Amino acid sequence: MVAFGLRGCLTTFSILAMIGIIGRIHWDGGIRRSVVIDVKSTASLPSNQAERLAYMTFLTGTMADQSDINLEHDRYFIATRILGYQLMHQAHTKTRADIPFVVLVTSDIPAIKQTRLREDGAIVIQVDYLRAKNNWIQGEMPEWRDVMTKLRAWELTQFSRVAFFDSDMILNRCMDDVFQDPGSSFVPSFPDRSIAEDEGRVPESYVLATVGEVNPFHNYPPRAEKGDFKDENYFNAGFFLFAPDHDMFRHFTTLMELQGRFDPRYPEQNLLNYAYRREGKMPWQNINSTWNIRFPSIQDKDAGVASLHDKFWSAHMDKRLQPYYDSVHWNMQYFFQLWDRAITA
């Protein structure tokens, strides 16, 4: 990229500051360095955090043609960049608590994409695919064949609590306070409830907090007594808070080998709903229903829902949301164009 001089550099930073989206930039001799955290140690985590929190998402190579050199064609990669931009840089949605953004990627995500995410400010952690040995888990959609790999997030015990988002998520306000929601705290497993002997052990305390999946047409905020939930005891695995734990991960991998123990139609979602079922030893906890909505509407956004589970390239239920999605996409592109120009000047 052609350098455009000190004056242009200052102008670029002035623009970034004026539009309120300037984020954390790491300098070394005038060159931006990727944000890298040693995933095996907590020593390199932000020291101003009283607790080791993280935002996290997952990018797999099965959602796009990874041989396509045009990065814009990979919508889930772009969605991941948008999510990172909103969590780290966008004025009204970025973290105020310096909570890192972690992206789990599979080994078939090309290096150019992993590098771009690091340059954006993300912590990129490569993980191995996770699959059942007897191949009985077949999701409804072919591209869901490797979503079980999302469960490797539970192996990242250098973090104490994590807010997990599917990459097709658009933010409407800062998410930091979700960690303060009463439902997101550690709770003890029920000592008087047992699990099947073939399912292995589970931790004595855990975190799994989220909101029930709402009906496409609903009130805001959604309420069970108004019939706004498909099933108030069932959650969508696109957004939840959890505590990484090796025992919990081993519990998941044990369940994966027990054919028929859960419905594989929505693979990781139904496994999680089984593991954290309401009547079980570790029932999932509710957080405020204003934190996230599946099937969002313009009314949800205008009323202040924190995050919208929808695809930036095509608003699903309410096309009136598309201009907002387009603006966030454009702002992300513009921000990083200015960012890159300023760094290379």
TrEMBL record:
Gene3D superfamilies documented for this protein: Spore Coat Polysaccharide Biosynthesis Protein SpsA, Chain A (3.90.550.10)
Domain of life: Eukaryota
Keywords: Transferase
Molecular function terms, GO-annotated: transferase activity
Name of this chain's protein: Nucleotide-diphospho-sugar transferase
Organism of origin: Aureobasidium pullulans
Lineage: Eukaryota, Fungi, Dikarya, Ascomycota, Pezizomycotina
